[in-house]
Inverse folding.
């Protein structure tokens, strides 16, 4: 039974929402985030990546960076750039990319649901990335980036979304990358009760994107519980900001592994070891992105290869037969000695919409990539 709650959002004034809204903090490296802030001084990146307000002599994880994030958030509220909602409500957040729309419910999800595995995870997290967001949430007293959650599509919830979308949107703008963002508020006790009761009928919710943000928010919640032993469970630190989408609206893209070396092997030896578990076909120099299950594209020394997992190595269990598990268990770990991808510095990841041409640009580790990305700064959840 999922506990999905309305909340009193901090959100941008209508006239500046398109300026404040920004892609998630982990889509950019520091220089890219700094360049985005030069283009738009109201960008929420100055809160999510507050190090870009300092010169590079200041490290990204210094205390002053998190203090600046908190102070900037408070200042934007004081200046009326960000508004504080007076009553708890739900929202509908719709994103349209290339004519394809997905619409989710903006709410807060329960720390206990995360701990009890009602909210399910499919990725590991890196300790350094997690610690950064723990400090960010703790110092700012806010969830500043929503977790992308998915649930099996329910007609009752879909009907509510369709009904509410007939009303005038709270926000409606197109971001510089051409994606349309529209938001509707859902108020009134009857509407709120209807949404709550429908989510209570759902037993399983999945983290589609935002594993680090979710894990960090939960750990801050547990920290606050320790600091407040008389907590009732209704305090805001018991919940974290989320957008919940029905599964049939999601578009999942690849997330490519980039390995720094061949674990002291030469190329012929490496290819020979792969052939134990995979059939290999050398394709040429044109990029290759497979669509079949248990099939992988590999770029090595200027050439692309097609790797097909041999049937006998594919286990029957639902997790082990995932492509990400096959790649990890049958190639990365046994051949390249990358046992823990969340901590091993020899592996990094390039994802989704950036495509195969940008595999040399390294990004944080994930298993899947979803597009379009939820914008940060449209909704903020205060823990106070």
């Amino acid at each position: 039974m999922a506990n999905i709650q309305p909340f009193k959002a901090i959100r941008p004034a209508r006239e500046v929402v398109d300026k404040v809204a920004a892609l998630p903090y982990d889509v950019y490296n520091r220089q890219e985030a700094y360049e985005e802030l030069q283009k738009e001084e109201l960008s929420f990146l100055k809160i999510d990546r507050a190090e870009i307000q300092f010169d590079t002599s200041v490290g990204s994880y210094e205390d002053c960076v998190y203090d600046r994030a908190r102070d900037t958030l408070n200042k934007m509220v004081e200046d009326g750039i960000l508004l504080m909602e007076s009553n708890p409500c739900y929202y509908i957040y719709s994103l349209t990319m290339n004519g394809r729309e997905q619409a989710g419910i903006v709410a807060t999800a329960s720390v206990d649901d995360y701990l009890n595995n009602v909210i399910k995870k499919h990725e590991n997290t890196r300790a350094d990335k997690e610690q950064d967001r723990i400090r960010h949430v703790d110092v700012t007293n806010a969830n500043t980036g929503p977790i992308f959650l998915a649930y099996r599509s329910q007609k009752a919830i879909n009907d509510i979304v369709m009904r509410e979308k007939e009303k005038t949107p709270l926000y409606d703008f197109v971001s510089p990358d051409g994606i349309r963002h529209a938001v509707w508020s859902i108020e009134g006790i009857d509407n709120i009760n209807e949404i709550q009761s429908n989510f209570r009928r759902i037993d399983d919710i999945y983290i589609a994107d935002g594993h680090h943000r979710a894990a960090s928010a939960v750990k801050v919640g547990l920290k606050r519980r320790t600091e407040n032993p008389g907590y009732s469970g209704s305090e805001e630190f018991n919940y974290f900001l989320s957008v919940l989408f029905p599964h049939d609206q999601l578009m999942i893209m690849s997330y490519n592994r980039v390995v720094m070396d061949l674990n002291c092997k030469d190329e012929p030896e490496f290819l020979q070891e792969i052939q134990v578990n995979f059939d290999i076909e050398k394709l040429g120099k044109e990029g290759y992105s497979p669509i079949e299950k248990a099939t992988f594209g590999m770029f090595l020394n200027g050439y692309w290869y097609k790797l097909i997992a041999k049937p006998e190595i594919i286990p029957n269990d639902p997790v082990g037969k995932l492509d990400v598990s096959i790649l990890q268990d049958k190639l990365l770990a046994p051949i390249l000695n990358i046992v823990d991808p969340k901590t091993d510095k020899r592996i990094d990841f390039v994802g989704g919409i950036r495509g195969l041409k940008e595999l040399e640009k390294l990004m944080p580790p994930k298993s899947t990539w979803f597009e379009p990305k939820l914008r940060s700064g449209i909704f903020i959840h205060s823990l106070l």
Notes: Residues 4-252+371-382 form one domain. The two ends are 26 Å apart (CA to CA). The chain has a mean pLDDT of 90. The chain has two domains: 4-252+371-382, 254-366.
